[in-house]
């Protein structure tokens, strides 16, 4: 285990502890000038900074916001005595001046790549289906979708556009999406979690922090955490969490409850903190069919391609065993794996196969067919909820928001919609469609007659039915 | 800006600070008698009061509950030595004895008028569709709907009915709805926010307080706040909020986070606190198509009709700039306005026009047609969620609970229902219906062929399609 | 009232205060050995225990985990110096060694019987509709449903299977479901609420604790509490709740707010704490039609069959009156009863009658018909939400998640599905089905023409219509 952990650490976290510049002895004159004015103009952020470690280390406004004259977004702040270049956005590249290792870990994570969704077809929803080109700004003379600007981009990150004099296009900023594509080309936004300008590590360790994005119908991790025993303990014992301790090693600095950070990022007696949040997860539950994380990393060209899922699982187990015995943890994983497999085999794979056959029978524009939404929610919403909830022991989300909704929509929406497509194809008078309808019907029949689905046709295996009846009778007999 | 703020303040908040009666030197004998008995009977409320500012100012039970013998709801409390008239309900008129300015501001707000919905047709839902006349009380011998009593009225306020001896009809009380219509004719309920009997201003500043009503499918402001950076900061820093400071000026008394009160009501270095919650909002997102708040105020005969939205926006910006630079705030408003416009133009206006044409084709009773619910939720639930969430920077609600649901239901429920109505009309054999069906079909065609919707017919502007493809390719090229 | 309370207490709580074994003077040698090793292996739980009352009373690991060699799940922990038998699960029978009265109360409650659902047909959902036999473990060689394992069982409790050497089958453990069926035959899991290994009573009094199970679409008590005035007060005043006081008598030890425990379990000046959570509820809102709790208890063979609902209501009123006057409480119950009656009469009874007539017209497998889900959610989800929310004064859940959804789905899903079944039956060419269709149509007509539903046919009683119109006009006249 020690060896495994070493491997994980050695993988790409192994860079020597970032060479932190020595803290300045006094606050720079330029920063003093910033503060003098902003103390009146925007007192809140000056106070935030005044309560931060940056203040105590004489890292002021200018130290972070300074820019090179050649930087795309550099400008000279009007009215300042000291004519220096600054930029509005402090990018991960800027933070890396002092926080090199954190930046390297973050850059290797899916978090920093969240903005890449903007170039994907998923974008179709926000840009076309929900949106239009009605929002015209200097940076988007042809218009851009306000649904993307106010929705997707706020979590995933915008591609920031610089106008004249360092001004940022208002469609692309304010934006603290974790995968923001910055004027300097860097990907990410440290302020997504370490918010303005206190940079409080305590705040970042609170579950609400992750809940800015990890919530809602498609990945309700915050809601699941809240209903789990872990969340229950957190809210009852928040005052015992020592959230502001620099070291914050689970089992040493606190033991009342884990937060999101504890399990996915923070230090244990055996592991250092990491800013690559995928290093302890053993399933990637994002796609229609769950895959191992190294496959997802490989697809994105990330170094995690060389860190197999079982090493990551060991790293997570190392967290668990601070409070749970090894047998307990192993048994938990048996349960979780069981749920992922159930979802993959019963719903995801048949669903994908069926959807593939619908193509010739659908209207051509994606999301112009009702079934597009039904299938999308099956895997993207309900299927994820079930899997995420099982991973975090939230039974309500596993069942009622997960497998129950999956089954309800699979049988009472998806199958009927498919059957309707078959009917329409059959009556289309178009030979190609009739052929496609036939193929689809054959697949429907195959799926519904399979072991997992034949109950629906009232063809439950007689042996299984007898066994179910017997079990129920035996169970009831205990209470007579 | 100073001038603008002055205007807002001068508008109708300008009454001299309420003439607060001098606090009594000792607690009245009558109140002492109340306390002596209630200390045993209802210890909780006596303790609440004992922890309140009222206690410290010798404002006791009788000072607030005293009544004139002629008051509709006046009665003499059984068994009291001191035979004085009291009433159960302490109305805003009663509170105004000391809190004159707060009452004046409140009386000018939509909050105090929330009970007026009871006389509107919206009422149809709770009284007829969901309810019946099954709940018979002394005040409602013909019966009243328990869905209205337990639902609508608890947020909007009941019209309190007085039975004999000051007794209140149980269908109308207990009730703390913010627009309650009181026996003395006044509108409102201060206890809606300043709860029994501690009247704690700290409690009223907590987001949960507003969340009694401002939550749920139709206006989830509490949920949106919770997921916003503002909420994240609040929950992480609640102990730094100084919520119990009398003055509570943002940037002076606290800076960790804003709560609902901070932005909509509380003092800034430049603005006093106001109990007219609409004075800082620049869109009224309640109706199907968003309007400016002065229009909504004019419709209700409120003094706010003379306070234009841009003055209100300036008042809000004054709050924002305690922590955000002016450019940031301006850019935020560009984003928010963009979302409101997108919703108004793409969904609300076409939806209204289409619904207007369905009338001859629908069953006559409102909500007896499936499309009644579909359209109602489009604007009343999903459309509001998108707009409210954009206003408060909650991307999950803007997108997943907002524009995504809007689009999904517009294209996969609303349009198909309309098309079904057309089909039914065409086959009705009724000339008027056939005519109506034709008109509706023409409008459907017009909407679907418009710039915002033609993607649905696979008629996306080739230029736009090419541009989308190019953008995606360029985006992906960055990562090769 | 005193008499009534006495009766409740005397009923089956009357066992003399549990004979608590004298606390040991020192920690046992065996427990010391456990601690010595687990301090390193699982530091968190040792720290939890170190903060517990058990620690202070020298009740250590072995005192709770000790087992008899004959116990099904007994095993000798490898590598221990002291070769003693222990078991992983500490069952209510084990806790009862010291906590006899708590155990007796708990054993009489529905909580302890939650596992019995596993033998019911409700199980069909998780085992068959949502699940499959894909999860194979040593204890389930024929496979078991991962949806049941990760979903239902985690709240309701698993039937724990013991493998060799005290090992527990991973499909059945980890499991803290409150009705867990333990290897020793006992029912329940104290750790469901009193979590590992701090056993903190303060934590158990937090609303989040109950929210592990009492939340979600089918019984959102946690969400309702959170939006109620009670929850608002709790979150604003958590620091004044004295949650860790041993006695914790409402009105004496705290008065800021009630939590779930306050109303359903904890002590008042007149009542002791009880672990039978049903002793203060006057409606059982679990089934399709609400029943009185003594009927539900009788059905399960529980001693509560002899405690009538009005006695239980008096017990609850005793809690309420610590902060509310008796009139207030009585009027609240008028409102709540009104809502239960509205639901029962308008939706539940007609719904049941209609569903009974659909049987010959449905596909035979339960949940293979869309209407199975529609009806299930009407009573199991929406109907419960309305009733639970009225019971706890949460207007948003009463209305929007309750009666609104009920009405929407009754009229726009349930009725149309029934009508479709009629049409299909009529055209089936099968005489039995045609007969059934006729009977169903007659019932639909009867229901829709009844007083509660005729508005749907635009047949509102002219008198009622006139009255509604008049009321609206009078109401509006006030504001001209």
Structural class of chain A: mainly alpha
Within the largest sheet of chain A, what's the order of strands? 1-2
> DSSP helix count of chain A?
21
Shape of chain A: globular
Model regions low in confidence, pLDDT < 50 over at least 5 residues of chain A = 1-20
H and E order of chain A: HHHHHEEHHHEEHHHHHHHHHHHHH
Oligomeric state of the chains present here: homotrimer
Rounded mean pLDDT of chain A is 92
Which pair has the most extensive contact? A-B, 69 and 71 residues
Span of the ends, CA to CA of chain A: 50 Å
Percent in helix of chain A: 40-55%
The Cα radius of gyration of chain A reads 26 Å
How many beta strands in the DSSP annotation of chain A? 4
Q: Main beta sheet of chain A: strand number and arrangement?
A: 2 strands, antiparallel
Beta content of chain A comes to under 5%
Please, how many domains of chain A?
4
Describe, in plain words, how this protein is organized in 3D:
The structure is a homotrimer of 480-residue chains. Chain A is mainly alpha-helical. Chain A has four domains: 19-99, no CATH class; 101-192, no CATH class; 201-277, no CATH class; 327-448. In chain A, 50% of the residues lie in helices and 2% in strands. In chain A, a hairpin with a 2-residue loop joins strand 3 (135-137) and strand 4 (140-144). In chain A, 52% of the residues are buried.
